Amino acid sequence: MQTCTNLELNNVKITSEFWNRYRELIVKEVLPYQWSVMNDEANIHIADDPQKNGTTKNSHAIANLKIVASKIKGHHSGFPFQDTDVYKWLEAVAYSLRYHPNDDLKQIADKLIDLIAEAQEYDGYLSTYFQIEAPERKFKRLKQSHELYTMGHYIEAAVAYYQVTGNEKALNIARKMADCIDNNFGLEKGKIPGYDGHPEIELALSRLYELTHEKKYLNLAYYFLKQRGQDPKFFDHQIEQDGFDHDLIEGMRNFPLSYYQAAEPIVDQETAEGHAVRVVYLCTGIAYVARLTGDQDLLTVCKRFWNNIVKKRMYVTGNIGSTTTGESFTYDYDLPNDTMYGETCASVGMTFFAKQMLQIEPEGEYGDILEKELFNGSLSGISLDGKHFFYVNPLEADPTASKGNPGKSHILTRRADWFGCACCPSNVARLIASVDQYIYTVHGSTILSHQFISNEANFDNNISIIQSNNFPWDGNISYKIKNPGENKFKFGIRIPSWSQCNYKLQVNKKDVNLPVKSGFVYIFVESSQMQIDLSLDMCIQFIRANNRVKNDLGKVAVQRGPIVYCAEEMDNSAPLWLYRIKEQAQARYHYNDHLLNGIGTIKVDAEVLNEDSKDDLLYTTVSNKPYDWHESKLSLIPYYAWGNRDDGQMSVWLNKEY
Amino acid sequence: MQTCTNLELNNVKITSEFWNRYRELIVKEVLPYQWSVMNDEANIHIADDPQKNGTTKNSHAIANLKIVASKIKGHHSGFPFQDTDVYKWLEAVAYSLRYHPNDDLKQIADKLIDLIAEAQEYDGYLSTYFQIEAPERKFKRLKQSHELYTMGHYIEAAVAYYQVTGNEKALNIARKMADCIDNNFGLEKGKIPGYDGHPEIELALSRLYELTHEKKYLNLAYYFLKQRGQDPKFFDHQIEQDGFDHDLIEGMRNFPLSYYQAAEPIVDQETAEGHAVRVVYLCTGIAYVARLTGDQDLLTVCKRFWNNIVKKRMYVTGNIGSTTTGESFTYDYDLPNDTMYGETCASVGMTFFAKQMLQIEPEGEYGDILEKELFNGSLSGISLDGKHFFYVNPLEADPTASKGNPGKSHILTRRADWFGCACCPSNVARLIASVDQYIYTVHGSTILSHQFISNEANFDNNISIIQSNNFPWDGNISYKIKNPGENKFKFGIRIPSWSQCNYKLQVNKKDVNLPVKSGFVYIFVESSQMQIDLSLDMCIQFIRANNRVKNDLGKVAVQRGPIVYCAEEMDNSAPLWLYRIKEQAQARYHYNDHLLNGIGTIKVDAEVLNEDSKDDLLYTTVSNKPYDWHESKLSLIPYYAWGNRDDGQMSVWLNKEY
After folding, report:
1. pLDDT value of residue B50
2. Is the pLDDT reported for residue A169 higher than 80?
3. Does residue A8 belong to any structural domain of this protein?
4. Which of B152, B248, B541, B568 is the most buried (most CB within 10 A)?
5. Which among B643, B372, B601, B652 is positioned nearest to B473, based on CA atoms?
């Protein structure tokens, strides 16, 4: 019997019905579909790009690589970062092979890696846009070029693919890329004292370092973080020196430096400003490097960003980005629901950030937010059929408004087949395919169970944990721990913030009352077997926002367990704004196996106004026309499942007597 | 004793304290100030143009004319329609000379007319932008050129200036312009089968016709109205034929044809679409021509537009234009308060439209809307000191939001010194200077008194009317009619919609009870003297919107008489959204002589929530943190007077228990 000093998680097999449906969808629908799209073989309609920069009706992503590899002739098409669609797909493939081995798919991926190797230059450089269209401008337009962002995504894919398949070639390409970047960037004479306009390389280099233990990759990531914003004129000087002729991405010249988190050194940045996806990718990189180097300044920075985002700038669904202009954060408590952005990629990025923070310290809030993103903000990015996607995730939508008011035209009310800027579909795919990596975090001799997703997990020392539940619909979570070597370790279970007032815990069928410490209860394990049963509070909750959020005043969001609900027009009588939840409203939960692949639905007591007539005056006195309420119900479905039926209004926040 | 057949209104002298303060401001501050701005002699800060097309930090409007007249050398600066600032100023000068003769000012104006004459080409053409920068493109870019719009504004100014001063030269320039346009436009061979992208010439030609009785001007106006939208490809064909190189006004190529009301013939247009100012200028032209020609199709069109705007698309303050994109209408009942546009010019244009409709038929609603615009939507465009202006008039504003959320950056919370696109300052000036023309409308032997603005009016047959009141603060309106010839005529008084449930009318000190017919009561006059006393309902009213307006649900606007009120942060504790007017709230009115040049203020019983702390959770359950109301009051001021003190929040719509 020994105390474990450094437990290792070996593998996790997901047994959750909820998640396995999505994970099978990734294998059966999403990956083949995305592959055909990237090969321009799918018969699809590409949505007007939210950034209105789409230049192609095809993806052309594989063709760009083939052109560079001299397999075909032609021009680059798509965004400068078009390659990343391929890399994120490859990363998702890697994760899928772990739970669903597939020789055909592996063969396609291996061949793709061969193609990528052929496209890579001798010095390691790879960005098809610059190789095809502007080889003389490599690394000379970093504000808009996305070159390091692009290679970062390949490095992430390669790390994943190597870990699953052992494909050395894939890893070598990544090493060559990282070496190329290392040779070109830094404060040493002759190197570029800069960084990419879009953070990503920092987290990618950290992952490469974790795999290879090659210190220079970590040093390079550290350099990029420290150098960012040191010289606010760096980007524009580069462009001036190279001679400005046109934006690589239309309109980007007008964005402020804060859009790129490059207005000042990151240690000086007090709030999360600018493009939300850039912010969370940057934060993930900061958290990685802070953990791997122990740098306290960086740790302070990532906690500061975390707190600003989570406590002041996040929607109740976990979505972030309050404006379509620059897909950006705006200011504290500014959370409009019908003009917001809430990009899928930003929510996916928040899961990366949360996961890293959990690896730094066992704080339940990181698990809370990770859960919020997994079950709401990220998941809404993909349709139930796996072939349609949201880029923007509003909390309030109305097809009439999206069509009729240009300030809401970025809000689609039906998921699109694909996007000109297709960052989101592959991002959500790689998240779902790797969700097994988001359930446990190990700190020395402590195993943290922070996500309630049924699984069978194996740790070293022959420790195994079987987690069983029907989450998110049911709050009964059971763990069977096998510990044949009778190792001593702590098992921490997150008590979600939505359940902290009311939960029940049993160890070996006996009630226990343990203190909640930073969101976790800790159980000391030393016997060879242990049964833990946790019963969470699955009451329906009416959530209100801090009243500094103007847009949510007098409204509630309805939540049950981790699931945030919404009302859709088709389940109610439009317009949704005429409903009001009564002061002492009762709400009833019902699992409906036949609706939207099986969902928990909620009905809430409400009252509703008769819709005024078009012949009624536009304005009249309250006394002339008093409010005319009658009894009704509001029918709600999970937010992640909205927009899977006919087009119509949707709203998360619902009027409530207050 | 005879029945009048066609009464004529000779002149109106305003005695209203409220309006005379503004009218003296026009003379003493606004006109000299605007003259110095247009001559680039004012030390001002020009606000970022709402359309972001400002190319100059100076107005340069007079300089452009001097360049064309070969007085100085240089390039054109400003918008293609920069000349109109001068013309609208000249028109305001004309009106001012009627109530405030000023030889110095008249001399300046006469000299300006000399300059304009020198700038005009032999054929009558005058548009300094094209004359200086692109003479080969005259009339070849009508979608964006504003040439007829520009000349239309001169024609309006000339008609007014000639009527007041008899300056023949001014009128001859206008005639030559109209002849030039007549020579170039029409369906005859060799003429341009088109029209201007910005309606205005139609109403200007109608005014010129009314003065000169030259039928061809009316025919030309009729042609423009009938031809508009007949060939939806006309504009783009013109540009293609001329060879496209760049937009005259950046971004305009992206606007749909509906922006220009050119997507289809106007008789087919069902709703008010596109740029709000264009719509109301067009409507004014349609109403003019419908009246002057008796064309029933045009009459139907202008009534249809009227109803759509007033009954579905107008803010409670009279402002119109629900989106900054294209400064446009959106769709029925879409009236967001904090992202809206509500351009000052659009409200001014509505007064033109309403006045024309009143000349067509004695319908009280036209007078109601005219009053709404005069006392609210238009008047808010100018500061109390006459030197600061709103282009955009929001119903809800917050400096933090304007600064921090790009979707609200078009909303200024302080009036600007001037604008790159300076259409609004001179438009509101010419309206105020001519408000004497908006009080009475004569139909044959009927005099309609539709605006309550103290005045002394003289009609032919020696009929005179002295209207006395302290409106808008007091609802007692008295008329002394002198009719020494004992002519028989009807005197119609508008009973405003806000007073139709409760008003008192006395004729010669005796109560009378007359039917309200389409918003008017009619008194038959035949004696040599008559005293009429009307007492209007000045109760404070809580106004609600039709509940199809999502953004106003659960809110009220507070109105007293014609004045719509708003809450400003400085009179209350911020944030304003934490207040709620109680169900049976009492409201008290108090005239404060010392505030904002003298205004009626209102205090309403309300309750207010304690502002949540920044340390409070962003989201929590309602049961964890119930609403914490305490008694309070809301202090309100007239909407037109907002933004004249320190920067802060403002809101017209206020939460109300509902």
Report:
1. 46
2. yes
3. no
4. B152
5. B601
- Please check whether residue A448 is in contact with residue A492, taking contact to mean a CB–CB distance below 8 angstroms: yes
**Integer Cα distance of B525 and B523 in angstroms:** 6
Q: Which domain holds residue B530?
A: 440-536
- Token output for A58: 């095809």
- For the residues B595-617, what does the mean pLDDT come to? 96
> Cβ of B544 and A620 within 8 Å?
yes
pLDDT at A180: 98
CA–CA min distance A467, chain B (Å): 29
A209 and A242 part of one domain = yes
Question: CA–CA separation, B340 vs B73, rounded Å?
Answer: 41
The answer as to whether B587 is a domain residue is yes
Per-residue pLDDT, A387: 87
Last residue of a domain, one of B389, B423, B438: B438
Is B504 in the same domain as B391? Answer: no
- Touching A: B residues 186-215, CB under 8 Å: none
Count of domains for chain A: 3
DSSP letter for A497, please.
G
Percent pLDDT > 70 in chain B is 97
Which of B546, B608, B619, B629 is the best mutation test for A, with the most CBs of A within 10 A? B619
pTM (2 d.p.): 0.95
pLDDT at B573 over 50: yes
In a domain, A545, yes or no: yes
**pLDDT at site B269:** 97
Cα–Cα distance, B355 to B295 (Å, whole number): 18
Which of B314, B405, B556 shows the shortest C-beta gap to A622?
A: B556
Q: By the CB < 8 Å criterion, does A42 face chain B?
A: no
Confidence of residue A48 (pLDDT cuts 50, 70, 90): low
| CA distance to A152, A229, A239, per residue, from A187 (Å) | 20, 14, 19
The edge-to-edge listing of strands for the beta sheet with B520-525 is B440-443, B446-449, B489-494, B520-525
User: Is B654:B579 a contact under the CB 8 Å cutoff?
Assistant: yes
Asked if residue B514 and residue B555 are part of one domain, the reply reads no
Q: What residues in A contact B326, CB-CB < 8 Å?
A: 406
Bigger pLDDT: A329 or A243? A329
Average pLDDT over residues B63-76: 96
pLDDT tens for A58-115 read 789 999 999 999 999 999 999 999 999 999 999 999 999 999 999 999 999 999 999 9
Backbone angles phi, psi at B292, to 5 degrees: -75, -25
Residue type, A266: I
Rg for chain B, CA atoms, rounded: 25
Of B415, B438, B461, the last residue of a domain is B438
Q: In the numeric block, which tokens belong to residue B528?
A: 């040599």
Which pLDDT score is estimated for A337? 98
Q: Are residues A340 and A212 in the same domain?
A: yes
Count CB-CB contacts under 10 A for residue A381: 28
Instruction: Based on the fold, state whether residues A338 and A462 are members of the same structural domain.
Output: no
Spatial contact of A130 and A67, defined as CB atoms under 8 Å apart: no
Same domain, residue pair A112 and A154? yes
In the block, residue with structure tokens 């290792």: A8
Q: What is the CATH number of the domain that holds B311?
A: 1.50.10
- Among A332, A372, A547, A612, most B C-beta atoms within 10 A, so best to mutate, is A547
Inform me whether the pLDDT recorded for B48 exceeds 60.
no
Answer yes or no: do B394 and B307 share one domain. Answer: yes
Give yes or no: residues B104 and B237 share one domain.
yes
Look up the CATH number of the domain holding residue B526: 2.60.40.1180
Mean pLDDT of A340-368: 98
Cβ contacts of A314 on chain B, cutoff 8 Å: 618
B548 has a chain A CB within 8 A of its CB = yes
How far apart are the C-alpha atoms of A224 and B137, rounded to whole Å? Answer: 53
Within a domain: residue A507?
Answer: yes
**Per-residue pLDDT tens over the stretch A553-595:** 999 999 999 999 999 999 998 799 999 999 889 999 999 999 9
Residue A50 confidence (pLDDT) above 50: no
